[in-house]
Design a protein that fits this description.
- With 339 residues, the chain is α+β, with helices and mostly antiparallel strands.
- The chain folds into three domains: 4-70, Uridine Diphospho-n-acetylenolpyruvylglucosamine Reductase, domain 2 (2-Layer Sandwich); 75-187, Uridine Diphospho-n-acetylenolpyruvylglucosamine Reductase, domain 3 (2-Layer Sandwich); 235-338, Uridine Diphospho-n-acetylenolpyruvylglucosamine Reductase, domain 1 (Alpha-Beta Complex), CATH 3.90.78.10.
- Helices cover 25% and strands 27% of the residues.
- It contains nine helices and 20 strands.
- Strands 6-7-12-10-11 form a five-stranded antiparallel β-sheet. A four-stranded mixed β-sheet has the order 1-2-5-3.
- Helix 5 packs across helix 6 (213-227).
- The two termini are 29 Å apart.
- The chain binds flavin-adenine dinucleotide and uridine-diphosphate-2(N-acetylglucosaminyl) butyric acid.
- Flavin-adenine dinucleotide binds at residues 15, 49-57, 70, 91, 116-119, 121-123, 125-126, 128-130, 177-179, 228, 231, 236-238, 337.
């Protein structure tokens, strides 16, 4: 039975641990729940926000509308050949649980994305990525409901328009669809991707010469735990900014001035700069604004150090943006969804 709560505190529902109220809050456990919800007058007459694990969202104010927490569960194999398998996961599954489920079945493809917080339904939103893999590399299709009409449709790889931390759902279809399930095309034999330098270093450190899928996952988990703050202990939403892309000529000018600049050549001839490095060079590691701060171990992560508000984090991010621009002439873009 669908329950709609009023004046609901979202603090436990966002990994920044920010206090913010929403006017209405409901949780859906099945597609039937959603179809029932869209008939409801409160739903029809209010702004809507779909929430997964709240790990890529910053509430800078109360949300005057209805928050729909997606709890659609279930993981299944929908088809397979001798070498490949299509795994479908419903949107409310915890991302890392899906990764572990795949590893336990010896399905290869998601292991580099181990331990990314949040739910499956949000994974296509920004085409989550880590350690040399993005979901677009293993994506098969997704199913989504039109939030106004309740009509269900599927999106294939091209229709999702995935890019670096981008998709159609962050752009022209922003707030238009509730993602209900995502399917991935995985390999039945290990095709490991250890191109990301840190993974090999970690495997060597673990004294593993012939890694399994599980070993790669463990290596990724170990790297992540050493760098990224656990939201249970310190509120954060991972990288607050994207790594900026610049042209070759901008890159060469910067490299002349800053020989230690950290950058990666992209297929299109542009360069991606390590935003964490840029922020660190501005001497901002540990810099605090009220209770919000730049993380001391990873400058790309902003943290809720001491009971800060969402606005404190936002103002801190503006300060970081300005400092980086004044120093390097490079404009950072926020990765986190700002409400
Ligand atoms: P939420 O924060 O709940 O939502 C994010 C956005 O998606 C919102 O706009 C929301 O409205 C929308 N949304 C959520 N669910 C649905 C749905 N079912 N249908 C339609 N819209 C929906 N990200 C990476 O890419 N790589 C990383 O390595 C990484 N590391 C992180 C490390 C830490 C410590 C933290 C805290 C975050 C990290 N992130 C990373 C960011 C975050 O984990 C991902 O963006 C994740 O996919 C967000 O999932 P969520 O369920 O928490 O989404
Ligand atoms: N660096 C610094 N100082 C810092 C932080 C980083 O000099 O304070 C340098 C590092 O030394 C390294 C480079 O910057 O040479 C890159 O750092 P790191 O490997 O930690 O990765 P990142 O670019 O900061 C990105 C993603 C992460 C993802 C990791 C691993 C973005 C915005 N962030 O971080 O994703 O987990 O690579 O693939 O692309 C997220 O999106 O929330 C997220 C955590």
């Amino acid at each position: 039975m669908l329950q709609i709560k009023q004046h609901f505190n979202l603090k436990p529902y966002n990994t920044f641990g920010i206090e913010a109220l929403c006017t209405y809050f409901t949780e859906i456990y099945s597609e039937t729940d959603f179809l029932e919800l869209i008939q409801n007058t409160i739903y029809k007459t209010n702004q809507k926000l779909i929430l997964g694990g709240g790990s890529n969202i910053l509430f800078t104010k109360n949300f005057d509308g209805i928050v729909i927490k997606n709890n659609l569960k279930g993981i299944s194999v929908i088809s397979q050949t001798q070498t490949e398998v299509i795994v479908k996961a419903n949107a409310g599954e915890v991302w890392h649980d899906l990764v572990l489920w795949c590893i336990s079945n010896n399905y290869c493809g998601l292991e580099n994305l181990s331990l990314i917080p949040g739910c499956v339904g949000a994974s296509p939103m920004q085409n989550i990525g880590a350690y040399g893999v993005e979901i677009k590399d293993v994506f098969y299709e997704l199913e989504a409901f039109d939030v106004e009409t309740g009509d269900k449709r599927s999106f294939n790889l091209l229709e999702c328009k995935f890019g670096y931390r981008e998709s159609v759902f962050k752009n022209e279809f922003k707030n238009k669809y509730l993602i209900a399930s995502v399917s991935f095309k995985l390999k039945k034999q290990a095709h490991l991707n250890t191109t990301y330098g840190a993974i090999n270093t970690e495997l060597e450190h673990m004294k593993i010469t012939n890694p399994s899928i599980k070993d790669v996952s463990n290596a990724v988990i170990s790297i992540r735990e050493s760098k990224l703050p656990n939201p249970k202990n310190m509120g954060n939403a991972g990288s607050f900014f994207k790594n900026p892309e610049v042209t070759e000529s901008i890159y060469l000018n910067l490299k002349l001035k800053y020989p230690n600049l950290v950058a990666y050549l992209l297929d299109n001839g542009n360069y991606k700069l390590a935003a964490g490095w840029l922020i660190e060079q501005c001497d901002l590691k540990g810099f605090a604004h009220n209770g919000a701060a730049v993380h001391t171990k990873q400058a790309l992560v902003l943290i809720n150090k001491n009971n800060c508000t969402g606005d404190d984090v936002y103002q801190l991010s503006t300060y970081v943006l300005q400092k980086v621009f004044n120093t390097f002439g490079v404009t950072l873009e926020r990765e986190v969804n700002i409400i």
